[in-house]
Design goal:
This protein is of the alpha/beta class and 494 residues long. It folds into two domains: 274 residues, Vaccinia Virus protein VP39 (Rossmann fold), CATH 3.40.50; 184 residues, Alpha-Beta Complex (Adenine-n6-DNA-methyltransferase TaqI, Chain A, domain 2). It contains 15 helices and 20 strands.
């Protein structure tokens, strides 16, 4: 369906958190709706140029399955797109007329979060919130600062979240009537991690999850928009009884790419005994095999006598104490840039990052005593082979009584002290293995690895990890050799 040509700069997209939906993705999303009532009250809360509504109406007119009226409500705050949106919905009106379907629409040039938060907050002087039986949405993706007006308004509406896309979904699900359907495309980051825990609880207690679709390529769905996160499409129905099974599907994300789908027990997607309500999305046979292997492990970090923490040094808060090169009165400061061949190589003179931090009464609370530690990156580049990247900090290679681990790292320790070397090397092999990477990708759709994610993992027992560590003589070796060692010990009892 044609619409007016529009041009939105990437800077403006970033400011608004706006990524317009490509036509093939919109068409696929529209195909996920189940049977609809005779009168459809449709909500498109982040309408953009109207691609989702257009795809919904096109699919509806093709189906000819008894719908006689569509009442569409669309929100779009960007004035540069509203003319294109009007042309799109006028085209929808003409298409419906040819199909014998009455079409009425209202475009609100308003902020959906501000307006609906107020109407859902039960303000005695506010207008009653509308009700919808269908919603299709590609919400904006942008963080919400703690002290913002948006955050306050959402709080009064009973929504606690730190990202616009989760706020949109939380409000939309409150506007749906029982049995109402929601199809959305969002970043996959809500599926795990502590920041989205309350959102997951809210989502799964209000919506029945019927389908999840993931793209094999991170960039394909929004190739022209520089979207850095993996996206997921979901189809959910307003209700409190989760299905026994749901459809998990994948595609490359390219136009007209084949879709592979299968039925997966809901209990394998959301584990009943998981207080975090992580959403695991198996997408390949390798991921399924990884889950089977990981499910056979029953050790926790606590049972291993270990802890994992986020690096204590937040560099911008201690800027005056940082030094580009080591000097008297300083200790090593380790960043991800110091990772090299499985071990920390320090200092790195050519780096733009400082290599040292003053060791004094002010900085010491943010330092740890030197010892053997296992480090992981909290953020990985999208082109990196593995989502989890672990590296050994060896005090024999980096001299100093204390060491600072920068905030972009996680570090494994024993109550704040270093750990046994063989245990650390065994952890290094395990966390860098393909099986852990595939398992982690089941429930993590972004490139961030939080300490909470690492605490939630199951681990081999201490004896097995130490045996792995003893077997590995060199840390800088191929993935195939590393996987062979890990596979030997993880499958020893099979």
């Amino acid at each position: 369906m044609p619409s007016a040509a529009i041009h939105v700069t990437r800077k403006r997209q970033g400011d608004l958190g706006q990524f317009l939906t490509p036509a093939p993705v919109a068409s696929f999303m529209a195909s996920l709706f189940g049977p609809l009532p005779r009168v459809v009250r449709l909500l498109d809360a982040g309408a953009g140029a109207g691609a989702l509504t257009a795809a919904f109406i096109t699919r509806l007119c093709e189906r000819n399955d008894g719908v006689r009226c569509v009442e569409a409500t669309l929100y779009e705050v960007d004035p540069l797109i509203q003319r294109a949106l009007l042309e799109t919905v006028e085209n929808c009106e003409r298409l419906c007329s040819k199909a014998g379907i009455r079409f009425a629409f209202t475009i609100h040039p308003a902020d959906f979060i501000h307006e609906m938060s107020t109407r859902l907050a039960n303000d005695l002087f506010g207008a009653t919130a509308p009700a919808f039986n269908a919603a299709i949405v590609n919400p904006p993706y942008r963080k919400i600062s703690t002290g913002s007006i948006e955050r306050r308004k959402l709080h009064y509406a009973g929504v606690e979240t730190s990202n616009l896309y989760a706020a949109f979904i939380a409000l939309i699900q409150r506007l749906l009537t029982p049995g109402g359907q929601l199809v959305g495309i969002t970043p996959r980051s809500f599926c795990n991690g502590p920041y989205f825990r309350s959102f997951r609880e809210d989502f799964l207690s209000t919506l029945e999850l019927h389908r999840l679709h993931v793209f094999e390529s991170r960039e394909a769905a929004f190739r022209d928009a520089s979207v850095l996160q993996e996206n997921v499409i979901f189809h959910a129905v307003k209700g409190r009884n989760q299905p026994r099974r749901l459809v998990i599907s994948t595609s490359s994300g390219e136009s007209e790419s084949a879709v592979a789908a299968g039925l997966i027990p809901f209990a394998e997607v959301v584990h009943s005994n998981d207080p975090e309500k992580f959403i695991h999305i198996p997408s390949t046979l390798g991921h399924a095999a990884a889950k089977k292997t990981m499910d056979s492990l029953n050790s926790s970090l606590a049972s291993l006598g270990l802890c994992v923490s986020t690096g204590r040094v937040v560099d911008f808060r201690l800027k005056h104490a940082l030094r580009r090169e080591p000097e008297a009165g300083t200790v090593p400061l380790v960043y991800p840039c110091h990772f090299n061949g499985g071990t920390v190589h320090w200092p790195k003179p050519e780096s733009r990052k400082p290599n040292a931090i003053l060791n004094n009464d002010e900085t010491r609370p943010w330092l740890v005593r030197s010892g053997v530690y296992l480090l992981t990156k909290r953020f990985t580049a999208k082109e990196e082979r593995r989502r989890l990247v672990a590296c050994l900090f060896d005090p024999d290679m980096v001299q100093g009584e204390f060491v600072g681990f920068e905030n972009h790292l996680n570090y494994f320790h024993a109550n704040g002290r270093g750990i046994d070397r063989h245990l650390a090397v065994g952890l290094f092999a395990f966390l860098n293995s393909t099986v852990v990477d595939q398992y982690f990708r089941r429930f993590s759709g972004h490139t961030q690895v939080n300490a909470t994610d690492l605490r939630k993992l199951a681990y081999p027992d201490r004896k097995t990890l130490q045996a792995m560590g003893t077997a590995i003589r060199e840390l800088d070796q191929s993935q195939e050799k590393l996987d062979a060692v890990v596979g030997k010990y993880l499958h020893a009892d099979e």
